[in-house]
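Exercise 3.2. Students should predict the tertiary structure of the chain below and write it as structure tokens, then compare their answer with the key that follows.

Predict this chain's 3D structure.
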Amino acid sequence: MHFDLKTILPAIGYIGIFAVVFAESGLLIGFFLPGDSLLFTAGFLASQGIFNLVILCLVCFVAAVGGDSAGYWFGHKVGRRLFHRKDSLFFHKENLQKAEMFYEKHGKKTIILACFVPFVRTFAPIVAGIGSMKYSTFLSYNIIGGFLWGIGITVAGYFLGKIIPNVDKYLLPIILLIIVFSVLPNAVHILKDPKMRAGLIEKAKSLIKKK
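Answer key:
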């Protein structure tokens, strides 16, 4: 993936990077996009003179915050309507109530931490909008998260590119480490929850039986 990005990013330029980060930060269609690896690789390319670091950081920051805000308003304006229909498997009024309670209790730190978790960062702003989290509160923590993620990972790629000779040879293991550390908190949370752990065990048993 990192070899492809080293070729693709210079071709798509700042506008393409903005579009990918924007989509992955809050649009449902962007959950599969390589946000972490893109930011890190773009930062590395900036260290090689291909991008201007200041412009790149600004582009990534605005895209991250803007994407999250778009996701919030989609959830707030459209997502809630889905729960006003007859209850179904996914769009159940009880799920909306749970979302509202969750963001009332954990919303602030969730918005920041979600930026560093693949898949979750795409859906967290949408759920915040569905759960009617106050937008001014959402935006404040969204800016912090967008700064730490959009600029932090980009700058990390830039400085590693500057201080480590031939760091491009180690891009893949570095990116894999970033992904592992991003997913690890969620994995620990799931394994610590008895219900979730029991559900995983049952799912594993059913898969084994099918084999």
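Discussion points: Helices lie at 2-26, 35-47, 53-84, 93-114, 120-130, 135-163, 171-192, 194-210. The radius of gyration is 19 Å.
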